[in-house]
Amino acid sequence: MRFIPLFSKPIFTRSIIYYGLCLAFASWFAFFIAVMMNLPNPYWAAMPAWVIFQPTRGLVLERAIYRFLGTFIGAAIGFAILLIPIHPILQLIVFTLLIGITTTCSHIFRGTIAYGFFTTGLTTAIVIIPAIIWPNDTIHLAISRVVCTFIGCIVVTIILALFIPKFPLRSFYQRIHLLTSDVIFYANQVVTSNSKEECQDIEQTLLASINDINDNAAVAAAGSMHKNRKLRYIDAVIAASLDVMAASRAILTRNERENVLPPEFSEELLNLSKQMSHKHPFYLEDTDFFTKWQLNDSQLKPEIKRLLYTIEQLLAAEHALIHNIERTQNINKQNYTATLLLPHRDWRMAMNIAAITCTIVFCVSLSCYFSHTQLAEQVAVGIGIFAIVFGSFPLPQVNAAKLFIGVSSGVIVAIVYSFLVQPYITSEFWLLATLIPFLIFGGICRSHPTTAIPAIDGNVAFFFAGHIGMPATDTFTILSTDLIYILCAGIISGIFILLPRKPDKQALNAILSIQRDLDRIIAAQDAVSKNWYEQSTRQLLRLMLHLSRAGKLGDNAPNGLLSTLNIGYAITMLHAKLERPELDHTSYIQIKTILYILSLKPKGNLTIINELNKQIEHIENVELRRIAEMLMDSLNESQPFFDYINELNKKIQ
Question: What are phi and psi of 6, to 5 degrees?
């Protein structure tokens, strides 16, 4: 359905209007209940709808649950702080420390649980700041606001859950299946190709697809414990996909030394990819590929055995995802060992964000405390709320302009409502009736992909600045309150624009994390070396995320990413050799020498690579020499990766 055509694309579609009307009705009905209960500040019941709304039912349910829990815990903590018999400034200090904790956790934890921590901090601020700065009956108002928020969460969740569709899980699993098929096709292309540049183009496309599936995994699992348990299998598919790609690259570099491909291997690998692309779900039993190419075949080269093992793991991981196989069921039969990606914890970034947020909230609240005026209370609440909101954004400098536009638009509409509509409302019926067109307009803006982000703040600002449902007031109070709200949004937007978190810097931190993982593997730190693959794979995914935010994924992303996995793989094999009791003294010294050279920085330095090459020339042990050559090949392959580190360092400095 097309409305107001703009060139060849519609501005409004049936789904945009449908979701907009659903959202408008949910917000209106929550406000209606609060008005019927004669609660002070009933507009607080209408505001949760604009934040809770998500495109799938699972996300709506999950976000509503964390909103409810965050509001309850935040309110309980806020009232508990106020009941502590200490000076108000000390109460502000305790409150600021709590904001630091919730802001840090909102960046440390994965998925919608981060929203729960954000809501906890926000609710605490709503309770604490007004009560300390302007204590005239603010406790009663705080309780009313919390009750209205609970009403809004419950009502909005029920209504939206009835109209919002479920996540298209079947098509998502189909995408995962196509990924596994494409990964095996990529493996065939790599092992038979002589062009590394051509393979790199396919690799970038697959990495972008893996990154997209990783980002949408939590969305697919939202709202269901059963689906959340399946996240480990999606992790296993992602990890196995990267492992297959890395094993393929190892074969490509090894082919430059000798031909490791057995006859007909590439042709049957291609047939396996074609079989998978035409059949979903696909089982190991559906192909005789692994019957012919056995892992224990002594005639196969180690690189081919590794590729066979990783492909088998990939297919078994997808099978486990489709059928939700537990680790204790039929795992030994398929030789399946799921790789679970360890969660990424960027503590430095999270603590820096928390420090900025806490500094803003505490300094502004303390300054306003000494004035003891209602105007100062509005300033402190406005800046405190916006600081906490910005502190939860992954890239606040990107959202700063959108938030300011949304807040300004909402306040302007609130001013229009306050002067042209509110003074003429004579009953609750007209209050509810006159609100409908504003909500429909706000709902359509919120559901439209172009205006969705600023519309969240615009709708909240409309209710908050307009005090919808409250008696009409004088012109000075209306203008001063609304202008303060815009001013607070502008101040916080400006601060976070001046203190941006750059994707390039975050990408560098992710790269350095990969480099630190390699250092720990070299040093054989048990706690890290045992999980090096899970950690490094997660770091690669984080790096791809930051590169995509920087607009570089698939374009200028560094080559050699997968070769870092091969470096780690070769290092762990060297450590495994050291643990063998039959290892001779000469080989022991040679391995120790190689590990020592690797511990020197930077690893991409040509001098270190040349030194390693000299050591390899003196190795007589055939197996050890093969591992050392794989390490050397991987270092050469990852040279662009280490060069990229230097480029980012120069750019950021």
Answer: -125, 105
Look up residue 640 and give its amino acid: P
Q: How far apart are CA 478 and CA 139, in angstroms?
A: 23
Mean pLDDT, all residues of the chain: 80
**Domain ranges (residues) in the chain:** 14-166+344-498, 169-221+224-323, 503-652
Identity of the amino acid at 188: N
Closest CA to 411 of 375, 460, 452, 451: 460
- The radius of gyration of the chain from alpha carbons, rounded to an integer in Å, stands at 29
Distances (CA, A) of 33 to 60, 164, 201, 464, 564: 21, 22, 57, 18, 58
Q: Are 410 and 461 in contact (CB under 8 A)?
A: yes
DSSP category for residue 12? E
Q: How many CA atoms lie within 13 A of 602 on its CB side?
A: 16
Handedness of CA 416, 418, 423, 425 (dihedral sign): positive
Crossing angle for the helix pair 196-221 and 532-549, to the nearest 10 degrees? 90
- Give the residue among 354, 468, 449 at the shortest CA–CA distance from 411: 468
Q: 268: Cβ–Cβ under 8 A, 6 or more apart, which residues?
A: 289, 292, 293
pLDDT in tens, 591-647: 888 888 888 765 556 777 788 888 888 888 888 999 888 888 888 888 877 777 777
Q: Give the tokens for residue 147.
A: 């009750």
Burial class (CB in 10 A: 0-12, 13-18, 19+), 651: exposed
- As to burial, measured by CB atoms within 10 angstroms (0-12 exposed, 13-18 middle, 19+ buried), residue 124 is buried
Say how far apart CA 653 and CA 640 lie, in whole Å: 20
* CB environment 184-223: b (16+ within 10 A), e (fewer): bbbbbbbbbbeeeeebbebbbebbbbbbebbeebbbbbbb
With vertex at residue 286, the alpha carbon angle to CA 283 and CA 291, rounded to the nearest 5 degrees, is 105
362: which 2 tokens? Answer: 């505490």
CB 222, CB 66: distance < 8 Å: no
pTM above 0.85, yes or no: no
Give the residue carrying structure tokens 């935010």.
549
Confidence class of residue 505 from pLDDT cuts 50, 70 and 90?
A: low
- CB under 8 Å to 401, separation ≥6 — which residues? 493
